[in-house]
Design goal:
Shape: flat
Strand content: 5-15%
Largest sheet: 2 strands, parallel
Distance between the termini: 22 Å
Mean pLDDT: 91
Low-confidence stretches: none
Helix content: 40-55%
Length: 72
């Protein structure tokens, strides 16, 4: 979040379970981070399961990057 506050595009990857905590921290710090929300859990997944999560999130990550560059 601190990088975003300083103007550096740095999407924050967060699982659904921790989204409310991240949102509360963002409000407290008065920042609006770019969030990439993925299903919980991430830890304990097999390599194939994790690859599936990454593939599922890749499109959203590219969209966030395009928006940050003003290409949306």
């Amino acid at each position: 979040m601190e990088l975003e506050r300083r103007g550096v595009v740095a999407p924050l990857v967060v699982t659904e379970t921790f989204l409310p905590l991240v949102q509360a921290q963002a409000r407290a710090r008065r920042v609006s981070p770019r969030l990439l929300v993925v299903p919980h859990p991430v830890g304990g997944l097999t390599a194939d399961e994790l690859a599936g999560r990454v593939e599922g999130a890749a499109g959203d990550l590219l969209r966030l990057a395009d928006e940050a560059r003003g290409r949306a």
